[in-house]
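Quick question: who can interpret this fold?

. . .
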Amino acid sequence: MSLVGKKAPQFIAPAVLDGEEIVSDFALPIGEKNIVLFFYPKDFTFVCPTELHAFQAKLAEFEKRDAVVVAVSTDSEETHLAWLNTEKDNGGIQGVTYPVVADLAKTISMDYGVLAGEYVNDYETDRIVFQGLPVAYRGTFIIDKNGVVRHETINDLPLGRNIEEYVRLLDAILHVEKFGEVCPANWEEGKAAMNATKDGVAEYLSTNVNLN
């Protein structure tokens, strides 16, 4: 089930901060900041470092919008730290400064509905087994300052994300909060939004959309 419109699941978990410090009790700053929370499958892989570096490259843009970026995978905090200490040219993510959370128990991924498998009862052996892959899909969640999930997308494992889209979506969320308008298709900051009324839609279409 989607988490959009619901309170984001909070957690306390190990994480690496600023690319160098392991902490055992990281928690999301719900109520303090907007949050861009993203899950990725695994450290020391191929698509994943491109995404983590891409989020880092846009970090200042998220910070301008009073948002923090937080990454999560099902690797351990020690593996995260090793990857953070590996140079980019060698497939590492050295230079990433936002928190990278360890979800070794897979409970965070399960709470957010992004785990690429599940625990099931094997009645033939009377054991609990894992079916699927014990890693996270590429899930992305935007959480507002009230702790409510405003956006959710989940990509399959081979499909990398477009980080610019999360900047655009955060702009849209902030615009709605500030002006009470709604954001139409392909809206970007600086473009016209519209009032959520029949007249407002008609006015927007007549002014901004070529219907011929």
